Amino acid sequence: MRQPLVAGNWKMNGSRESIRELLDGIKAGMGDVNVAEVAVCAPAVYIADVEAQLSGSGVAWGGQDLSSEASGAYTGEIAASMWLDFGCRYVIVGHSERRTYHGETDEMVARKYAAARAAGLVPILCIGETLEEREQGITEEVVARQLDAVIALEGVAALNDGVIAYEPVWAIGTGKTASPEQAQEVHAFIRGRVAASDAGVAAGVRILYGGSMKPDNAEELIAKADIDGGLIGGASLNAGDFLGICKAAG
Ligand code: 13P
């Protein structure tokens, strides 16, 4: 019932030229991919190029962050309506790099989720614990708190309009993937947390795994009952690796 999604998060990488080559490579290989949905989340300045290249391709695109405000005097910020203006379907909210380097709190992330949703974008809500938090045994407490901020602001039904990405911070860009069992345990907890408010929403919401996902570990992760796809950083910058993950998910 849940349609798998594989989304790339390019982070602050690429150039006009490298992105053109990357998307040419992805488009050329999409014929062999049968995962339900594929998307890439690009740096804002390249979004017009991405739109031009991906329109009609079957690959969706999106942003990596947005403002919680609709418009106005917010220098440097990007509104949900602007992403939509360039054909975006998705926007990442609350990535751990935003939480860590830009001081985004659970409440700020919840407001961004709300802004995306109000505009008709699909927010990809990132949650996950640091290594220190895992070692302290508070993983569930941390992801529950991050999730509950959105439920408190928008109501549990708001999760019908978004996607959750569980990204253990210690697995991001480190080459240390959570084992399929470790990941499944947290995914099941997240789904259970949603189910405590609404079983129907819990059954439908997609929960992606992110953190050093590669072609050779994707299949085992995505085979788990509560893992509905991936949010891919480093491996999404290489067409062959990204397609490999898409194939594994399909
Ligand atoms: P890596 O795949 O590079 O570990 O990054 C994961 C991530 O942060 C995706 O948002």
From TrEMBL:
<dbReference type="GO" id="GO:0005829">
    <property type="term" value="C:cytosol"/>
</dbReference>
<dbReference type="GO" id="GO:0006094">
    <property type="term" value="P:gluconeogenesis"/>
</dbReference>
<comment type="function">
    <text>Involved in the gluconeogenesis. Catalyzes stereospecifically the conversion of dihydroxyacetone phosphate (DHAP) to D-glyceraldehyde-3-phosphate (G3P).</text>
</comment>
<dbReference type="Pfam" id="PF00121">
    <property type="entry name" value="TIM"/>
</dbReference>
<feature type="binding site">
    <location>
        <position position="212"/>
    </location>
    <ligand>
        <name>substrate</name>
    </ligand>
</feature>
<dbReference type="InterPro" id="IPR013785">
    <property type="entry name" value="Aldolase_TIM"/>
</dbReference>
<keyword id="KW-0324">Glycolysis</keyword>
<protein>
    <recommendedName>
        <fullName>Triosephosphate isomerase</fullName>
        <ecNumber>5.3.1.1</ecNumber>
    </recommendedName>
</protein>
<keyword id="KW-0963">Cytoplasm</keyword>
<feature type="binding site">
    <location>
        <begin position="9"/>
        <end position="11"/>
    </location>
    <ligand>
        <name>substrate</name>
    </ligand>
</feature>
<feature type="binding site">
    <location>
        <begin position="233"/>
        <end position="234"/>
    </location>
    <ligand>
        <name>substrate</name>
    </ligand>
</feature>
<dbReference type="GO" id="GO:0006096">
    <property type="term" value="P:glycolytic process"/>
</dbReference>
<keyword id="KW-0413">Isomerase</keyword>
<comment type="pathway">
    <text>Carbohydrate degradation; glycolysis; D-glyceraldehyde 3-phosphate from glycerone phosphate: step 1/1.</text>
</comment>
<dbReference type="GO" id="GO:0019563">
    <property type="term" value="P:glycerol catabolic process"/>
</dbReference>
<feature type="active site" description="Proton acceptor">
    <location>
        <position position="167"/>
    </location>
</feature>
<dbReference type="InterPro" id="IPR020861">
    <property type="entry name" value="Triosephosphate_isomerase_AS"/>
</dbReference>
<feature type="active site" description="Electrophile">
    <location>
        <position position="95"/>
    </location>
</feature>
<comment type="subunit">
    <text>Homodimer.</text>
</comment>
<keyword id="KW-0312">Gluconeogenesis</keyword>
<feature type="binding site">
    <location>
        <position position="173"/>
    </location>
    <ligand>
        <name>substrate</name>
    </ligand>
</feature>
<dbReference type="GO" id="GO:0004807">
    <property type="term" value="F:triose-phosphate isomerase activity"/>
</dbReference>
<dbReference type="InterPro" id="IPR022896">
    <property type="entry name" value="TrioseP_Isoase_bac/euk"/>
</dbReference>
<comment type="similarity">
    <text>Belongs to the triosephosphate isomerase family.</text>
</comment>
<dbReference type="InterPro" id="IPR000652">
    <property type="entry name" value="Triosephosphate_isomerase"/>
</dbReference>
<dbReference type="InterPro" id="IPR035990">
    <property type="entry name" value="TIM_sf"/>
</dbReference>
<dbReference type="GO" id="GO:0046166">
    <property type="term" value="P:glyceraldehyde-3-phosphate biosynthetic process"/>
</dbReference>
<comment type="pathway">
    <text>Carbohydrate metabolism; erythritol degradation.</text>
</comment>
